[in-house]
Every structure is written in C-alpha cells, then in structure tokens.
Specification:
246 residues; Rossmann fold; 9 helices; 7 strands; binds NADPH dihydro-nicotinamide-adenine-dinucleotide phosphate; KR_dom; oxidoreductase; Acetoacetyl-CoA reductase; NAD(P)-bd_dom_sf; SDR_fam
C-alpha cells in the first residue's frame, strides 16, 4: 500500500480512534483534529505507546470555516499535503421535532454537514492537482432510513451522501474518489451509555445479533483510502449488521 497522509476529523472519539489506528497501522501519516482541548496529550501518548509515532493533532472546530482553512494550511505546511480526508466528527442533539430547538437543529447540521464544505474546500484543489485523493464521509444508518427523534441528525446525515454523490461526479476523472460510509449501531461510549434494557432492544433488531465494532468501520476506511479502491466512488456503504438492507 502506498503510504500517504490521512486527516481524520474528531479522531479522538470512539470510531475516530479506531480509524486513526487502522490508518497508522497501514503506514499512513495521520493527522487528527479535536474541538475540546484537554485530552489530546494523553491520547497522543497512548498512540505513541502503541508504536504509532507519525501522528499529529490539531485543535479545530469543524463548524468554523475560517478555523478549518487556517488549521489545514498549518497542518499541510507542518506535516504535508492531505491525500485522504475522513470527515468523521459528528454530534447528535436528539428530541422529537415538536421539541427541537433551532439551536439543536443548527448544531447538528453545522457539525455533521457544514463541516464537509469547511474541510473539503481547502484540500480538494491539491488532491486534483496531484491526481490522487480519497474523501470519506461518515454518515449513519439513520441518514438512510430516518430515526424517530432525529430529524436534525437524519437530515444532516442524508445530506452528507448528497454531497458525496455530486462531488464524486465532479472529480471522478481526477483520481479523487468520494464515498459515504453509513454505520449502524457501534459499541462506542455513546451507545454503551444507553441503558442496558434499551441497548438490548436495539441489538434484538440487528440480524447479526450484536453491536458493530469501531475496528470494523476502520477496516472499511482503510480499504477506501487505498490505491486499489480507485473504482469505487459515489457509493454509500452500509455497515450495520443487516439492520437496514437497501
Ligand atoms: P464520538 O462522540 O465518540 O466522537 C465524535 C468526535 O467528533 C469527537 O472526537 C469530537 O471531538 C468530534 N467533534 C464533535 N463536534 C466537533 C466540532 N464542532 N469540531 C470538531 N470536532 C468535533 O462519536 P463516535 O465515534 O461514536 O462517532 C463518530 C462518527 O460516526 C460521527 O459522525 C457519528 O455521527 C457517526 N456514527 C456513529 C455511530 C455509533 O453507533 N457510534 C453510528 C453511526 C454513525 P471533541 O470531543 O473534541 O469535540
């Protein structure tokens, strides 16, 4: 596998950490971002303790267009040009539409969807000029089927795939692929914090009979980041234990 520079937004979270590890294990230089300072030194020390030395972290709020441009300019100067971009940062602010505030709507749309504009804009020209790029957007099963209490999240996650399909067509002949991954329920802190009784009901609806593992998402990203994945673009890859088949 050609070793490249990969940037993962929100890479210190449950799924993001597994993605960073998998990309680093494949020999890529990894850059990640966080928005809330405090945990980055311990996280970097953990990664270095596991033998991943070529890993870098930058603070950046993915909802802030200027901050993303400035962070990417700095990271690309200090580490190198970004070849693989994984848009992983995301949040939920759940509640039925009747109870949903404009703030909850805006926070979810900005973090999950506006972030694609903010992160892709500063790296796309470079990818096109170099004739290689991989853009991977982490959506959700709930962007494919909708979810009670998640109008904001379902709209943002469905919107991510609209972005994927349109941009994939624009850059297909330039060696740049754009794909969406739609995970089902994954055993991260977020899902493990759900009361056991509710979690068991969720698991009962998953044909495979268990939650997904962050490493299973990371393995798919490693494939999409690779040279061999050049013929896959504009796809929305479901990885959900059979919970939603399209
Ligand atoms: P986590 O909450 O563990 O991680 C989310 C990451 O996003 C955090 O590292 C957080 O960093 C970062 N983040 C949040 N807001 C911002 C912001 N404004 N700017 C920069 N970074 C931000 O979630 P998961 O690992 O579970 O989820 C990762 C992705 O996978 C998300 O997009 C989520 O929607 C999606 N997903 C998750 C599923 C699951 O079952 N877990 C299922 C389907 C999709 P910080 O704390 O520093 O803000």
């Amino acid at each position: 596998m050609t070793k490249r520079i990969a940037l993962v937004t929100g890479g210190m979270g449950g799924i993001g950490t597994a993605i960073c590890k998998a990309l680093a294990e494949s020999g890529h230089t990894v850059i990640t971002t966080y928005s809330k300072p405090g945990k980055e030194q311990a996280w970097l020390a953990d990664m270095k303790g596991m033998g991943f030395a070529d890993i870098h972290a930058y603070q950046c709020d993915v909802t802030d267009t200027a901050a993303c441009a400035a962070m990417l300019a700095r990271a690309q100067q200090e580490v190198g040009a970004v070849d693989v971009l994984v848009n992983n940062a995301g949040i939920t602010r759940d509640g039925t539409f009747k109870k949903q505030s404009k703030d909850d709507w805006d926070a979810v749309i900005k973090t999950n969807l506006d972030s694609l504009f903010n992160m892709v804009k500063p790296v796309l020209d470079g990818m096109v000029e170099r004739g290689f790029g991989r853009i991977i957007n982490i959506s959700s099963i709930n962007g494919q089927k909708g979810q009670f209490g998640q109008t904001n999240y379902s709209a943002a996650k469905a919107g991510m795939h609209g972005f994927t399909m349109a941009l994939a067509q624009e850059v297909a002949r330039k060696g740049v692929t754009v794909n969406t991954i739609s995970p089902g329920y994954i055993a991260t802190d977020m899902v493990m914090a759900v009361p056991e009784e509710v979690r068991n009901k969720i698991i009962a609806n998953i044909p495979v009979g268990r939650l997904g593992k962050p490493e299973e998402i990371a393995g798919l990203i490693n494939y999409l980041a690779s040279d061999i994945a050049g013929f896959m673009t504009g796809a929305n890859l479901a990885i959900n234990g059979g919970q939603h088949m399209m």
